[in-house]
Amino acid sequence: MTIWQTPQILTTCDADCQMGLRLLAKMAERPEQPLLGWTNVSVALAFILFDVGLSTVFRLGLGVSLVVASGRCMGQLTVVATLLHEVFENRNPSAVALIAFVFNFLGTFEIVINKSSRRFQNMFPYILASMLCSTIPISILGAHFSMGIRPFWEPIQYIPVIGMLCGSAISGVVVTINFLLTELQDNKDKIEIILAFGGTRREAVRPVVTQALRLALTAPINNMSVLGIISIPGMMTGAILGGASVQQAARLQMIIMFMIAASTTLASVFSAFAMVAVILDREHRVRSDRVYEHRGCWFSLDSWKRVPRRLSTHVKTAYDRLSTTAKEQDATVGERQGLLQNMA
């Protein structure tokens, strides 16, 4: 029995006071969360090593991808935790706005540079505008009206929300852009036939855009369908571990999922319209010259996967050159010695 449950205190309080004391007693009975250190992270890293082993056994070729992704995860979360600690302490709205912009900027960078094998003209500013116009309004309206945060930019609540919205919007935009670029390149003849018979660019690409948006929204729909029955999401789990009641955590997760669905839809729609406006101009022509292949950048996952192969190729080439040069020198020396012997 805790101090809040003693009969002397309970008998001297009214009904509301007793309810509050019982709530405090329940909170006091909850076990404290253990402090996690790098040792705990190292132990959990064994799961990744297990996956690497399976990839090696079945020859999946995902070992390097798993290691690089794990390293990025650890490094990025460490940096973000350090920055967010300072922002949470200072409660500066300018810092919150900057972090929200950085989240969208880095998300756009991930879409354009690392996730897209093809790109279209002015892709980066269009995707950035689509991300900002979808995540920022939804996060502000949801935080202020649905979640009841006052002020809405409270760092400890707003920043995790904008982060989740950006992450979901990235997935939707990647699916939309990649599908549209593939269809507009592979089925260019069908679109040009519709345009040749007097159809507008909207009529020509409407089936393709519709299918792309359906694919982009499949993930949010599936997540909402299985939520609570098959899986317990991370936001709800974190709220429960943080001390919130189960009912409050469930309602918070409902709000977050509805916001995620809205932001993913807006980002996918904006990016699809922007891409169609670039590839199909005002003259209702398909501008294939505005689409080009993209090989990625030096810090993308695919580039890191090719590093060992490139190094081995360069080493082998250098070794072959040295061997060829040595053989040529030996042949030249042998010819000279033969000529000298003949002259003697």
UniProtKB/TrEMBL annotation:
Membrane topology label: Multi-pass membrane protein
Primary location class: membrane
Signal peptide interval: none
InterPro entries the record matches: UPF0014_fam
GO terms under cellular component: plasma membrane
Transmembrane regions listed in the UniProt entry: 35-54, 95-113, 125-146, 158-181, 224-246, 252-280
Location relative to the cell: Membrane
Keywords: Membrane, Transmembrane, Transmembrane helix
Similarity comment: Belongs to the UPF0014 family.
Name this polypeptide is given: Uncharacterized protein
Source species: Psilocybe cf. subviscida
